[in-house]
Amino acid sequence: MDDRLIDDLAAGLAEALGASAITDLVRLSGGASRETFRFVADGRPLILQRQRSGDVRDMGIEANVLRAVAGIGVPVAELVAASSDPSAIGAAFMVMSAVDGETIARKILRDAEYAGAREALTAQLGHALARLHGADVTGVRGLTQQDQLSQYRAILDATGQPHPAFELAFRWLTAHRPAPRQPVLVHGDFRMGNIIVGADGLRAVLDWELAHLGDPMEDLGWLCVKAWRFGSSMPVAGVGDYDTLFQAYEAAGGAPVDPDVALWWEVLGTLKWGIMCIGQASAHTTGVARSHELAAIGRRVCENEHDLFLALEGRW
C-alpha cells in the first residue's frame, strides 16, 4: 500500500477506535479472505483484519464467535472492535489485541526455543478443543451446518477431473459414516499454522472465519491431517500422539472419543484438503487469480492422494 492509503486507513482506524494516535501501521502477510495489519493505538499494540473484496462471509458472525469463546478456556486474542459496516475503513473489519508468539509451523516444530512448547502442545490443544466445543452459541446468529461429504462430492464433480484415489476415499467414507451427533461449535480450521505458540505453548487460536455447527470430531480429525504435520512423524499437529490428544480432550470435558470416528474425520479432512488444492490451482490456471502460490498448491493434490492411501491402508 502507498503512503496515502496507509494514512487514510490510519485515520479511519483512529475514528473507529476513538484513538488519538495510530502509529506503526504495517501490513502483514494474510490469507485469501483477509488483509492483516499490525499497528499501535495510543500506545497499545493491536492487529487489524480487514475483509478482502469478493469475500461475502459475514465477519460479524466471527466476531460474535470470538466473544462466545473468550473466557471459557479457549485462548484467543481480545476482540477490541468489530464492524460489518464498510464505511469506516473501506471494508468489514475486526481489531484484536496483539499476542506475542510464533505461527510458522516449521519454526514451532524444529526450533530449540519451542522444545518445551512441543511437549505441552498436544494436551493444550485437546483442552482448548474441549472448551471450544462446550461454548454456548445460542445467541450467535448465522452459524450453519452442512453435510460436508455431499458438499465436497459436488465440488469435485464440478471440476470434471478424474481422481480415482478420491473416489476410493468417498466410497470408504460413505460405507463407514458415523452416526450423527448433537452439533456443537466447530472451529473448522483448527491446525498448526492457525495458532500462536510461545515458549510456554499455546497462546491463541486464530482464524475463526470457518466456524460453524457440526460434529466435534471434525476439529480433532482436521488437527491430525497429515498435511498439518509439516513433515513430522507425530500424528497430532506434528507434535504429539492420538492418545494424549484424546485423553486431554476428555479430561477437559470433551465428549468420549471413538478413535475410529476421529479417523473418519481425519480421512475426510485429507480428502477435503486435496479437493481444495484442486480449486486453488484452478483459480490460477483459469486466470481468476493469477498467483505462483496458488499454482504451486496444485502439486499438493497428489500428496493428498498418497496420504489417503496411507490413512486407509488395511481398512478395507
Write a compact overview of the structure shown:
By secondary structure, this protein is of the alpha+beta class. Helix content is 44%, strand content 15%.
The third-level CATH topology of the largest domain is: Aminoglycoside 3'-phosphotransferase, Chain: A, domain 2
- Low-pLDDT residue spans: none
Number of helices: 11
Order of helices and strands: HEEEHEEHHHHEEEEHHHHH
Q: In total, how many domains does the architecture comprise? A: 2
Shape: globular
Helical fraction equals 40-55%
Strand coverage percent: 15-25%
- From the alpha carbons, calculate the radius of gyration and give it in angstroms: 20 Å
What is the CATH superfamily label of the largest domain? Aminoglycoside phosphotransferase (APH), C-terminal lobe
Query: Overall mean pLDDT score?
Result: 93
Output the structural class.
alpha+beta
For the record, what CATH class of the largest domain applies? Alpha Beta
Number of strands: 9
Indicate the multimeric state. single chain
Named CATH architecture of the largest domain: Alpha-Beta Complex
Order of adjacent strands in the largest pleated sheet: 1-2-3-5-4
Major sheet summary line = 5 strands, antiparallel
Distance between the termini: 54 Å
Describe this structure in words.
By secondary structure, the protein is of the alpha+beta class. It has 2 domains: 3-97, Phosphorylase Kinase, domain 1 (2-Layer Sandwich), CATH 3.30.200.20; 105-312, Aminoglycoside 3'-phosphotransferase, Chain: A, domain 2. Helix content is 44%, strand content 15%. It has 11 helices and 9 strands. It has helices at 3-17, 59-69, 105-110, 115-133, 148-159, 164-175, 217-223, 242-251, 259-285, 292-297, 300-312, and strands at 22-28, 34-41, 44-51, 79-83, 93-97, 184-186, 195-198, 201-205, 212-214. α4 (115-133) crosses α8 (242-251) and α9 (259-285) packs antiparallel against α11. The chain is globular, with a radius of gyration of 20 Å.
